[in-house]
Amino acid sequence: MESDDESLLSPTSSTSSFDEDDVNVRMAPNWCAYRQLIESRGTRLDTCADVKQWYQDYWESLIAQGCKVTRDLPGYTRACSYSDENELCKDAGLPDNLFRGTHCATGKKVVIKAVHIYSREYDTVRYLSSPPLRNHPMNHTIPILDLIDDAANNLGFIVMEEWSPQLVSDVPRTLRLFLGAIRQCIEVRSFSPYRTYTGILMLISQHAVFMHAHHMAHLDISIRNLLTDYSSHYAYIDFETCRRFDGIPSPRVRGVRGTNLPPELENGEYADPYKVDIWALGVLILHASALTGYDVPELKALTRPMLHEDFERRPTASAVLKVFDTIVAGIKESRLQSTSVYHSST
Question: Would you report the helix, strand and coil content of the chain in percent, each value rounded to 5?
């Protein structure tokens, strides 16, 4: 039985004989050794000079706003401790598999993630970033600027735009904007056409519909895996647990590790991977509502069947999106223009 289960969990596009556990572990490369390779592809890893400049710009922006600043910050002090400003300066707050940098052609700040070349994450990101999927209006994955292979050492580098995980610091100013953001999550895409929040709930909805339509399950949908660019765009990250099920009509998974797990997985049972996402999506919608201060009774009604203990009675992602759109269409304009408790108190 164990071998059957494992065959369902393996990436469908990989023909490698590598063990599943071996290829899906966190990588810790020697970043200095890969500096030349990464820079030859147009991405510069952060040096001490880059870090010091970032802090200088940050402090100047605070001073311009009339804020007091303190220059005795660990990151800045650490960058100043090196004798050579051209030395790489690793962000101590990031795990060993991540490094900050700059995309030279665009000047965009990026995060480079090291993964095993046969990992589920690399397989998923490569698939979602390939045409025509990368330009699909429902693909709400983080923008990928480059994929760098070091096949000789089974290592891959994902160069992605640096977005913020601080959802609550970018709280939608109106209910319309908040609902728009949730819709994106139900759908899923790289660049959202919704520059409003009736564009967090949209992303939450759209992302799941898109992935499931392409026989993929994220299996770790949560607030911590949702980023924003502070321009009403939202994206999903971290596809370590993601599975593709091409050619498998009724897939089942077991032993998945994630943030918001449904009862069947908690109990060690087999689960429908798509309904695992639906459960996590319901938890995310309620969590986002609480964090942003929007009390929407209709969303509680929407999530009730999504959180049914019997996964077979949970709706599909497309059904959730359809009900969501019906709910939004029935909300009066005056209410859509209302603000959250956090904005109302300011």
Answer: 45, 15, 40
Structure tokens at 142: 């983080």
Going through 96-195 in order, the beta strands assigned E by DSSP cover: 98-103, 109-116, 144-150, 155-161, 186-187
Angle between helices 297-306 and 273-292 in degrees, nearest 10: 160
Q: From residue 205, how far is each of 223, 264, 310, 323 by CA, in Å?
A: 13, 22, 21, 11
Successive 10-residue mean pLDDT values, the chain, 346 residues: 36 50 89 98 97 91 86 88 94 93 95 96 93 83 94 96 71 76 64 38 69 93 84 82 92 92 96 96 88 83 96 95 89 82 56
pLDDT at 122: 96
How far is residue 264's CA from residue 279's CA, in Å, rounded to a whole number? Answer: 11
281/52 Cα distance (integer angstroms): 40
Q: What is the dihedral of CA 49, 51, 55, 61, to 10 degrees?
A: 90
Q: What is the Cα–Cα distance from 328 to 318, expressed in whole angstroms?
A: 15
**pLDDT value of position 165:** 73
Residue 8 Cα distances to 73, 75, 119, 247, 334, angstroms: 48, 44, 15, 11, 49
Give the pLDDT of residue 202. Answer: 56
Interior CA angle at 244 toward 240 and 245, to 5°? 145
Q: φ and ψ at 185, to 5 degrees? A: -65, -35
Peptide bond into 143 cis (omega under 30): no
CATH 3.30.470.30 corresponds to the domain 167-342: no
Q: What is the CA radius of gyration of the chain?
A: 21
- What pLDDT was estimated at residue 169? 52
